[in-house]
Design goal:
By secondary structure, the chain is mainly α. It has 10 helices and no strands.
C-alpha cells in the first residue's frame, strides 16, 4: 500500500510505473489503472503516464502489436484478439491498426486446426462439428472455419 505522502510523490509514482514496464509491455490505461489502484493520486498518475509516453517507454501501438503477435502465436482468432485489445483499454484506431498487422486469418485457422487435429478432416458430421466448435472457441469467424475445413478436405482427396 502507498501512504498519503507517497501517493502525492511524482517520483514514487514514476518508480512504480517503471517497475511495471520493466517486466513486460503494458497499455497506458493498464499502467494508469494499476497506479491508481495502488493509491497514487489521479493527477500524478496522468502526468507520469504522459511522461512515459513522451519517452516512448509506454507505447499503445507497440503494446497492441506485441499482444497481437503473442495471441496469434497461441492460435487465437481475430475475435479473441480484438476482445483482448479492447480489454486492454486501447482506442478503436489502435485496435484496427494492430489487427492489420496480424497474419492471414484463414491460413492461421487452417494451421491451428491442423496442429490440433492432424491433416485429415473427418467426413462425419460429429467430427467436423467438433473441429468447428474448437475454431469458433478460438475466435475464428465462420468464413475462416469453412476455409480451414475446405482447404484441408480438398488436400485429402489426392
Amino acid at each position: 500500500m502507498v501512504d498519503e505522502h507517497r501517493a502525492a510523490d511524482p517520483n514514487a509514482a514514476r518508480a512504480a510505473a517503471l517497475r511495471l514496464v520493466a517486466r513486460r509491455e503494458y497499455s497506458t490505461s493498464e499502467v494508469a489503472a494499476t497506479l491508481v489502484r495502488k493509491g497514487y493520486a489521479t493527477a500524478i498518475v496522468a502526468v507520469t503516464v504522459a511522461e512515459l509516453q513522451e519517452e516512448r517507454l509506454l507505447d499503445d501501438v507497440r503494446y497492441a502489436e506485441s499482444l497481437v503477435r503473442m495471441l496469434t502465436g497461441r492460435g487465437q482468432g481475430p475475435q479473441r484478439v480484438r476482445h483482448a485489445l479492447n480489454e486492454a483499454g486501447l482506442s478503436p484506431e489502435a485496435v484496427a491498426a494492430a489487427l492489420d498487422t496480424a497474419p492471414d486469418w484463414m491460413l492461421l485457422a487452417a494451421d491451428v486446426r491442423r496442429r490440433k487435429f492432424g491433416a485429415r478432416v473427418p467426413k462425419d458430421w460429429p467430427g467436423r462439428a467438433r473441429q468447428m466448435r474448437f475454431l469458433q472457441y478460438r475466435g475464428f469467424s465462420k468464413d475462416h472455419i469453412a476455409s480451414a475445413l475446405a482447404e484441408t478436405s480438398s488436400n485429402d482427396d489426392s
